[in-house]
Design brief:
Chain A: Its cofactor is pyridoxal 5'-phosphate. Chain A: It is an enzyme of class 2 (transferase). Chain A: GO terms for molecular function: cysteine desulfurase activity; lyase activity; pyridoxal phosphate binding. Chain A: It catalyses: (sulfur carrier)-H + L-cysteine = (sulfur carrier)-SH + L-alanine. Chain A: It comes from Spirosoma fluviale. The structure holds 2 protein chains of 2 kinds. In chain A, strand 8, helix 8 and strand 9 form a beta-alpha-beta unit. Chain A contains 14 helices and 17 strands. Chain A has a 7-stranded mixed β-sheet with strand order 4-10-9-8-7-5-6, sandwiched between helices. In chain A, 40% of the residues lie in helices and 17% in strands. By secondary structure, chain A is α/β, with parallel strands linked by helices. Chain A starts with 10 loop residues before the first helix and ends with a helix. Chain B has a single domain, classed as Alpha-Beta Complex (Sufe protein. Chain: A), CATH 3.90.1010. Chain B is built from 7 helices and 2 strands. In chain B, strands 1-2 form a two-stranded antiparallel sheet. In chain B, helix 2 crosses helix 3 and helix 3 packs parallel to helix 7. The relative contact order of chain B is 0.19. The chains are: A alpha/beta, B mainly alpha.
């Protein structure tokens, strides 16, 4: 958890970039610690959205008028920005989706249905979000594939030795989360990918939680697929990215049929467009795609290493301060974590904790965080989760701790 | 006391509190005073689905009046308090009055996020279940 880099960011200045933070909730200044669910948007991103609608809203790609050309240019500029953000080799490898879940479903329904067959094994991990479990279960049901699961230890780390035992010549696909949304664990995805490739399996990495916290390089990782959501990296909701290696995307059949994804349509036969358009049927989410470029620029302006250093400081401080509370147990104490602290309070239901924190103006998330198998692994129904972003402060963590003391006083 | 008289009494009690936290404390304390529900009644059939925490409600008809029992899993004290509040208003009334009750006290007491954030806590589901009991027993002749 110790950060090698001292943060140089002026957090108070950064907070001024996020208008939503400056409000009272239940008579107290808002403390927003639900960033793993979605983080807040800087003014620059909000302006990019309104700027699009006020200045150059038009349908893209086939329009020949000025607005359509401007919108198309902005849309494709976002693709290039995302290519750079992920360090993808080709711009065609960036497919715009509705989000991480959509990206995983796309791969399961196209690559999975085309190339996996009965008896093939798919490996996921115990700490997957439901969105990286259910699409594979659906595929297994349809194709007769077998789902295998990498276990985790008591600290919330994947057991790589056990993963190695699961890998055989029958393993055809591995789908694993980069960073756990419930625990904050950073998984050794480079190792996971290399070991899967050694048996000839294809790998998808769910980067939803990693994207705003870690430096990403899909070529260095050698990921076959990498998926993320814009709304978790200071960008708009309802928009995400599927990165896939060109040769894989070329070989995959289209996902949805409609406009844009075709080359030529006749009633006798339709031929399909090239990637990325083959996977982008219908009018896409143009405004949000355009605005995501601004979100990437915003993060780059702060410097991802600076963001990580600040969040590490918050993680360390929160872990220390929360550990002072009697009856509080942190779930997930991995050596490598992002700024997520999940915990349970003895004798208090997480739902009650969330309600009473909210009454004090503090937003956290409570429940199973869409990771029920992981909660079952720890023998709990759910947790209270505080998750940090670049605009959070140590003062806000103090408010959380004071708020939790109040919860305990009321309940016990 | 009629259902509406009990509602008016609760509205007056809540008026004593300005702060949301004090209102919540009051509800938690109501839950703590709730008479225990026999374990044998905490069945899947009596469980209110749609709650983040486990909540059970059962009803019994005595002398033409319907009496409710309710509980939550031990740690879920706000849910338990809300069950207690509903029992206080509805228990011991005629089934048809329960089925037709207008629970106007809920928006009036200003429970704030106890209503909104407990959508998952299932206040609406609890009310629905208790009214369903009222409706079912309205047609039962003793």
């Amino acid at each position: 958890m110790q950060s090698a880099i001292e943060t140089t960011l002026d957090i108070q200045q950064i907070r001024r970039d996020f208008p939503i933070l400056h409000q009272q909730v239940n008579g107290r200044p808002l403390v927003y610690l639900d960033n793993a669910a979605t983080n807040q948007k800087p003014t620059a991103v909000i302006n990019a959205l309104t700027g699009y609608y006020e200045g150059y809203n038009a349908n893209i790609h086939r329009g020949i008028h000025h607005l359509a050309e401007k919108a198309t240019a902005a849309f494709e500029a976002s693709r290039r920005a995302m290519q750079e953000f992920l360090n993808a080799k080709h711009w065609q490898e960036i497919i715009f989706t509705y989000g991480t879940t959509d990206g995983i479903n796309l791969v399961a329904q196209t690559y999975g249905r085309q190339f996996l067959k009965e008896g093939d094994e798919i490996i996921i991990s115990t700490m997957e979000h439901h969105s990286n479990i259910v699409p594979w279960q659906m595929l297994c049901e349809e194709k007769g594939c077998i789902l295998k699961v990498i276990p985790v230890n008591d600290e919330g780390e994947l057991l790589i030795d056990e993963y190695e035992k699961l890998l055989t010549e029958r393993t055809k696909f591995v789908s694993c989360v980069h960073v756990s949304n419930s625990l904050g664990t950073i998984n050794p995805v480079k190792t996971i990918i290399d070991k899967a490739h050694a048996v000839g399996a294809v790998v998808l990495i769910d980067g939803a939680q990693a994207s705003s916290h870690l430096e990403l390089d899909v070529q260095e990782l050698d990921a076959d697929f990498y998926v993320l959501s814009a709304h978790k990296l200071y960008g708009p909701t309802g928009m995400g990215v599927l990165y896939g290696k060109k040769e894989l995307l070329d070989a995959m059949p289209p996902y949805r049929g409609g406009g844009e994804m075709i080359k030529e349509v006749t009633f006798a036969k339709t031929t399909y467009n090239e990637i990325p358009y083959k996977f982008e049927a219908g009018t896409p989410n143009i405004a949000d795609v355009v605005a995501v470029k601004t979100a990437l620029e915003y993060m780059a302006g702060l410097g991802k290493e600076n963001i990580a250093a600040h969040e590490n400081d918050l993680l360390q401080y929160a872990t220390e301060q929360l550990s002072e509370l009697d009856g509080l147990r942190i779930i997930g104490q991995a050596k490598h974590k992002i700024g997520v602290v999940s915990f349970v309070l003895d004798g208090i239901h997480h739902q009650d904790t969330g309600v009473i924190l909210d009454q004090q103006g503090i937003a956290v998330r409570t429940g199973h965080h869409c990771t029920q198998p992981l909660m079952q692994r720890f023998g709990i129904a759910g947790t209270t989760r505080a998750s940090f972003a670049v605009y959070n402060t140590r003062d806000e963590i103090d408010r959380l701790v004071t708020g939790l003391r109040r919860v305990q006083k009321m309940m016990l | 006391m009629t259902i509406n008289e009990k509602q008016d009494e609760i509205i007056e009690e809540f008026d004593l509190f300005d702060d949301q936290l004090d209102k919540t404390q009051y509800i938690i304390d109501l839950g703590k005073k709730l008479p225990p529900m026999p374990e044998s009644l905490k069945t899947d059939e009596n469980r209110i689905m749609g709650c983040q925490s486990k909540v059970w409600v059962d009803a019994e008809l005595k002398d033409s009046q319907l009496y409710f029992y309710g509980d939550s899993e031990p740690t879920a004290q706000i849910s338990k308090g809300l069950v207690g509040l509903l029992i206080r208003v509805l228990s011991g009334e005629k089934p048809e009055d329960i089925a037709n009750a207008d629970l106007y006290f809920i928006p009036r007491v200003g429970m704030g996020n106890l209503i909104t954030s407990l959508r998952a806590g299932g206040l609406a589901s609890m009310i629905e279940r208790m009214k369903a009991f009222g409706k079912a027993y309205s047609t039962v002749k003793q």
